[in-house]
Design goal:
222 residues, Nuclear Transport Factor 2, Chain: A, five-stranded mixed sheet, 6 helices, globular
């Protein structure tokens, strides 16, 4: 295969790895999320998402030894009523060098109830009792709803092993982040709302693969 054509195919496979990671987070799909990382990968993320042990200089960092342990201990517990959690990929630049590749993927995320603004905590409190580490998803203590809007980048080194691309080393940047006050939730958005789980409409569409429901089968049934 021509080198330039193989590079295009590799870049598409790598982009799919990143897209599956984002789907895994948005749809609360742990198994899909884990497919992004090699078992011996390293991830240097927010303070509560560092692995392996010892990767952070902060003594209070939530250090774990693998992506699997992160999922077991700190995976976001998105319970009903399905608090908004939405990550979106932006531009992605991928450079391939044989069986190693480097990717810089911009993202924007929106999350409600994961943490809360410092001004919403009890007077004089340090906020430790209201961290994701203890409570996963929470409501702010002042009774109001807040949305964290964040922009950052996934800076990845990926490796191809056995013909499969996955992340071997990741640093997640926080380029900007701020809190928004949710004054009112818009109602009447249609009959197919997005969900953080297998109840999302996407899985109904994916389920048509198993039943053989496609255009050709529909035509044959006419």
């Amino acid at each position: 295969m021509p080198v330039d054509l193989q590079e295009l195919l590799d870049k598409q496979e790598i982009y799919d790895v990143l897209a599956r990671y984002v789907r895994g987070e948005n749809r609360d799909d742990k198994e899909l999320w884990l497919q992004t990382f090699w078992p011996d990968s390293e991830c240097h993320n927010q303070i509560y998402q560092n692995w392996p042990v010892g990767s952070s200089d902060d003594p209070d960092a939530w250090e774990v030894s693998s992506a699997e342990e992160w999922v077991e201990k700190y995976w976001y517990a998105l319970e009903p009523p399905n608090p908004p959690f939405f990550n979106m990929l932006g531009q992605v630049l991928i450079e391939v060098d044989g069986d190693v590749a480097f990717a810089e993927a911009y993202f924007v995320s929106y999350s409600q109830g994961m943490q809360q603004p410092s001004w919403a905590r009890p007077q004089g409190g340090d906020g430790e009792d209201y961290s994701l580490k203890e409570h996963r998803a929470i409501e702010s203590t002042d009774g109001r709803r807040y949305m964290r809007i964040r922009g950052g980048r996934y800076c990845d080194r990926l490796e191809r092993r056995g013909g499969v691309w996955k992340v071997a080393y990741r640093i997640v940047t926080d380029d900007w982040s701020f809190w928004a006050d949710c004054t009112e939730k818009v109602s009447g958005l249609g009959t197919h709302p997005g969900m953080s789980g297998k109840g999302d409409p996407l899985y109904a569409v994916l389920g048509t693969k198993a039943t053989g429901t496609d255009q050709e089968s529909n035509k044959s049934g006419e």
